[in-house]
Amino acid sequence: MVPDRGTWQLTAGAAVAGLVVAVAAVTAAGPWDNGQRKAERDHAAALGRTGGADHQVAGRGRDAAEAPGPAPAPSAPGVLSAASPPKVPSTTPTDLARVLGPLLDAPGLGPLRTASVVDATTGRQLYGRGAGTAMTPASTIKIATAAAVLSATGPAHRIPTRVVAAPGFRAVTLVGGGDPTLDTVRLRALADRTAKALRDRGVTTVRLSYDTSLYEGPVIHPIGAGNDNIAPVTALMLNEGRLDDSTEGSARRGADPAGDAARAFVGLLSERGVNTSAGPAPGRAPAKGPALATTYSAPVPALVERMLTDSDNDIAEALARQTALATRRPASFAGAEAAVTDRLKRLKLPVAGARFADGSGLNRADKVSAALLTTLLVRAADPAHPELRPVLTGLPIAGFTGTLSGRSATGAGGLVRAKTGTLRGVDTLAGTVLSADGRLLAFAFLAGDTPSASAARPALDRLAAALLP
């Protein structure tokens, strides 16, 4: 399973010991690796896509993403040599309470702290503090977004971007299907096919419109316009509306991503000998117009993995709307909320008190409990739900990938897999580890009114590391 922007390649010059640590950790991380998800090991070893922690570090350039070169893996000494954190001799509730209790009381976690640790095989809660209390989850809500879209769409679903012609082929419409990962490479290929289809019919001048009608409701996220963490939420955009060469993390976004994408398409058509007599302008595609060309996103499981690894807000909002569309609801914030809630109920998850006001976790109105997050992770490890496996394979690896690439408590590098979450005063972490007695544990730690992320993040990382052997 690979993201749409190039292959997560095994790094040619990587230190063998560092790769062995990461791959071994992933191999040991649960019962789901039965051949259905070979990409699990590939992603653990592939270090080509590392992102800033929760959108606050600028991403890598597109050229690097499209043609990644060799990059060194973390060295074995950096992963293995340092002193170990407090360890749990066995995963009994008493042992966990003794070790985790003091760590959960760390001042850096603020006054509001909840926790849940669950045996993924049995579903038994081994440790809890306020586990059923709904709190603002920040980006850990993306675990719920992932489970919902995977259960609603199926593994083969790809998001289309189409070019539809009017009768006579003198007007064409670029139709957005909700794919925020549409990039210049695929837009160029779309222009190639469109230009050829028009030239084959003797057409060299067209009117161009662009159709974003698939989405309904507000385009601007409730956090407001001009936020570097998310573009206006529209069914048509190029490179997530980014105005630089980044591919993940925070970046300045265009105010009109759909118009920007259409203007880029006009330029590409012109380079191919097809000029526009008017436009681009907003419009609706003809209901029965012939499709001249189509490009597709990566399959939904790959989008889920990219969303979770990089904590990508634009993909998260798109996948929430794909859930709405798959369940015949409006592709809007409200429609996505209803769809995600319904899918989680169908998975028999504890959604009492939960709210999914958006798909990304940027909205402080979102509420989930630690118990819901751990139950989601347990369900993703359940052999009865192989469709949910990307929820686990997409989790960042401590010290190696995504928003955990620069984070790991002593001894945890390559061994903790977890989704991060950060808003001002909110810090969360939810993921999986293999326990001292060989069991897969799902954990969630949520903190509110934290004094600073610089104090809260290490405290959360120590909690996760304390579950390791």
From TrEMBL:
Protein known as: D-alanyl-D-alanine carboxypeptidase/D-alanyl-D-alanine-endopeptidase
Annotated source species: Streptomyces marianii
Region ranges (Disordered): 48-95
Pfam families per UniProt: Peptidase_S13 (PF02113)
Family: Belongs to the peptidase S13 family.
Domain of life: Bacteria
Bias type Low complexity, positions: 76-85
Keywords (A to Z) from UniProt: Carboxypeptidase, Hydrolase, Protease
GO molecular function: serine-type D-Ala-D-Ala carboxypeptidase activity
Transmembrane segments annotated in the record for this chain: none
InterPro entries: Beta-lactam/transpept-like, Peptidase_S13
Origin organism lineage: Bacteria, Bacillati, Actinomycetota, Actinomycetes, Kitasatosporales
EC nos: 3.4.16.4
UniProt record, GO biological process: peptidoglycan metabolic process; proteolysis
EC main group: hydrolase
Cross-referenced PANTHER family: D-ALANYL-D-ALANINE CARBOXYPEPTIDASE, PENICILLIN-SENSITIVE CARBOXYPEPTIDASE A
